[in-house]
Structure formats: structure tokens, C-alpha cells
């Protein structure tokens, strides 16, 4: 059985893998692996385009090296897999990155090694989908020659308060001894402590319901916002009033994207349907949240109609493209739904986001962000993401982009006071 002091590999160096590799690399030998050679080059140069780890933090990981050559992992005895687990166009789990990573690990897997998965999956995926790949490629026998663990990631991109080391880590292993080894491994870096789950399936299920619960709570608030808008009641005012009760949960309406909340529920519902149960509440929440982009665009179109501004041919500015504020993460951003609906209405749409890499936006979303909005040019401005840069502009700065005679300012993020915006979600 591999020991915690032995050399380890982290497979996938994105928002989850890099902070993990850096933290472990401060005290032990770690090889960070990614198939993207460009990503490896920037990390070797001391730069992180995700902005999760700064240059000083990278430099502090004295025992961390980077590679895109799987052969460099042969001396490792522990492998931590942190690749994405997205959904496809039909909203079905796409395990392709996970299975390919398992194939790569299988090529260098040896007797006594441990493979730990952090990627979000449905209960059973680690042992039913990943382990057979490891066995097939390596020729080794699970729980005899090699062992696996599961410790779900809890990274919150852009959050400088809740970091890897300050968030309790759920751990698990395929045998009792493996579970203890995996738990001790993470306990060596996570100051908030660990929680050892009784099985890998329990740990997988715990991860997938964390964000399913959040998704459903946001769906409820989104539906309430739709109802209150029809009643001409300010949703934020209602939530503030209700929030004076000690046990009222402080969720807010909005576009639900990102690598977790807008994705994880589909992993759970997929597995549920595989075992013969058709989820109702979870999928209802997903449908409602997935429809919010169209609702936002429809709200704007109606308000433009009331003001005799023709949306067909109108110029609209969308401020923000990332899935959340103050980070460059574009994964599963639902701002694209608003843009798509506005384009269908015949509007000309400019998207501006100072956090976004334009090349990534083009490659991932087929959207070309503008370098700078035009002053006094837009019939409507949508504040879609609450970046600090937009907050700092204030109402005067935001309205400065609108046409002087008449325009509509739509605040999706409650950045402005109620009387400063023309529309709020």
C-alpha cells in the first residue's frame, strides 16, 4: 500500500487540480500533469490563467513539477484525478475526460498504487466506470494490486475566503486501509479537517447532492421572482423582509451556470433513470433554471416595447460573460442564453467582460467580446455579472453607455438600488 510520503501525481491542472498540486507540492514531491501543453508552459513560467493561484503561491510549491508526458508519472505511487465532468448537448453526463484520464493513469499504474478521483460523478461511477478502465489498461486487479479513493472537490472559483485548505474535505477509499490512507493524505494539508465517508458511493452521492440542493433552492427563488414580477412586487425587497427570520435561507434569483450547480443535478438524475426512477423535483428545478436566460431576454423585450424601442435592430450591451463575478471562468455560463435570445429578437448585442480571455470566449462560446463599450450608444444595458469593475462604475457610469434620450438599464445582480435600475430580476 502506498504511503503518504511517496511521490504523487495530479492529473488535470485546472481550477481544481492546480491549487491541489500547489498545496501538496509545498511539502512533498508532486508531478502536475495536463494534456494541454500550453497550460504546462504557462505554469512553468509561473503564470496561472485561471487566477486561482498567484505567482508567489506557485513559487512556494518547491517540490512541484509540471509535465504533459505521461511517462514522467511512472515513479508516482499516488494519482489524483481532477479532470472536468461536463454534460453534453443533450444534458447527459460526459465521462470522456474522466475515462481518458483513467486510461492514461492505467498506462503507468503499478502494484500497490492508489488512484484518487475528485471529479464530480454519479454514485457508482468510480468503481463501475473508472476502475474497469484502470484494470483493462494496466492488467492489474482492483483491490488486490491497486486501490482507489474518492474525495470530491469543493473548489469555489474566484473565492479568496473559502480555499482548499479551509473547506472540510470528504474522503473515502475502496478498502478500510485505503480510506485511512486517503484521509491522512488530505488531512496533511486541509486545516479545516476531513470527513471519512463509509464508502466511495456515499462520498460520490454527498458531492452530487451538495449542488443539487443549491440548484433547487435557486429554482424556487427564480420562480418566486417570476411570480412577483407579474404582481409588480420587488423580489429583492421581499427577500430582505423574509430574511429577517433566523432560518430563512439567503438565496437570490439569477442565471445558474458554472461547472457545478448547472451540471451536477444531471449526473444524479441520469443515474436515477438508469435504475428505473424518473426524478421529478430535481428535473423541474433544472428546467426552470435553464429557462431563465429566455425569461430575462423576454422581460427586456417587453419593457422595450412599452417604451416604444424596437428590439429588432436595437443595440444591447451585456456586461459580464463569466458564470460568476470576479473570476475568468466561462464554464457553462448561462449569460450566453440571454445573448442568444436577444439575437433571435433581431438585436445587435455587444458583450463586454474585462475578466475574460477573448480567444477562450471565441473558442468555447463562439462569442467575440468587445474591447470597450461605446459611450451613449446602447438602447439597453444588462448588468449580467457583478464584477467589481461594474460595481465601481455606479449607476452614472453604467447609464453612460446608454443613449442619452432613452435607454433601459436591467440589473440582474441587485448591484444598484431599486430606484436606480429600470428592470430587476
Outline the fold blueprint.
Layout: E1 8-11, H1 17-25, E2 30-33, H2 37-44, H3 55-60, E3 64-67, E4 78-81, H4 96-108, E5 114-117, H5 125-138, E6 147-150, E7 169-171, H6 176-187, E8 194-196, H7 200-230, H8 235-242, H9 264-274, H10 281-290, H11 292-306, E9 315-319, H12 335-344, E10 348-352, H13 358-365, E11 380-383, H14 388-399, E12 408-411, E13 423-424
Parallel strand pairs: 1-2, 1-4, 2-3, 4-5, 5-6, 7-8, 9-10, 9-11, 11-12, 12-13
Helix pairs in contact: 4-5, 7-9, 7-10, 11-12
Q: How would you describe this protein?
A:
- This protein has 425 residues and is an alpha/beta fold.
- 39% of the residues lie in helices and 12% in strands.
- It is built from 14 helices and 13 strands.
- The strands form 3 sheets. It has a 6-stranded parallel sheet with strand order 3-2-1-4-5-6, sandwiched between helices. The chain has a 5-stranded parallel sheet with strand order 10-9-11-12-13, sandwiched between helices. The chain has a two-stranded parallel ribbon with strand order 7-8.
- Helix 4 packs across helix 5 (125-138), helix 7 (200-230) packs across helix 9 and helix 11 (292-306) packs across helix 12 (335-344).
- The protein is globular.
- 46% of the residues are buried.
